[in-house]
Write a structure and sequence with these properties.
Elements (H helix, E strand, L loop, with lengths): L10 H10 L5 H13 L4 H11 L3 H10 L11 E6 L2 H5 L2 H11 L14 E6 L11 E3 L2 E3 L4 H12 L3
Parallel strand pairs: 1-2
Antiparallel strand pairs: 1-3, 3-4
């Protein structure tokens, strides 16, 4: 529960946690559902899961930090994935990641732009090796991307409603 005593979960999510709290493998399922609804696992959400399930908070944080899939920071409105799989890496994927981070003024360890509009993460493979290097924004794939094109791609999403 949040400090105010009000749940940080929607009624639907709260019902899901209650339904799963005593089932085998419950923690992973609960965390997936939270991230699906909220976009990440906040400290408040982890604390609420601990309270509802009776699991130690340290165990919940351990699972969240162990699995790369789980995010602990709120993602931006537009989620950018820069492929660093072998083909993309060899054709300049790291340069694309560096340029994206530079244009968004992200410091080491930061994944979300200050305005909350973008979050950036490297991924191992998008599955479009023939289009390497590849960048994806909200699932829209851009192939054979050059560093010069990154600004145009970002501007496309800056100017959306």
């Amino acid at each position: 529960m949040a400090k105010s005593g009000k749940s940080v979960f929607s009624a639907e999510l709260l019902a899901f946690v209650e339904e799963w709290k005593n089932k085998p493998g419950n923690l992973i399922m609960i965390l997936h559902k939270i991230q699906q609804e909220q976009g990440y696992i906040s400290n408040e959400a982890a604390a609420e899961v601990a309270k509802i399930t009776g699991l130690p908070l340290a165990r919940i944080h351990g699972v969240v930090s162990f699995y790369h899939f789980f995010k602990t920071k709120k993602p931006g409105k537009n989620q950018i994935s820069v492929c660093l799989g072998t083909a993309c890496y060899l054709k300049g994927g790291q340069n694309l990641l560096d340029e994206t981070r530079r244009l968004l003024a992200l410091k080491d360890g930061e994944i979300t732009s200050e305005d909350g509009l973008f979050s950036v993460e490297p991924v191992r493979c998008i599955g479009c090796c023939g289009l390497a290097p590849v960048v994806s924004v909200n699932g829209e794939v851009f192939g054979k991307v050059t560093t010069a094109q990154i600004k145009t791609i970002l501007d496309k999403y800056r100017n959306k409603d």
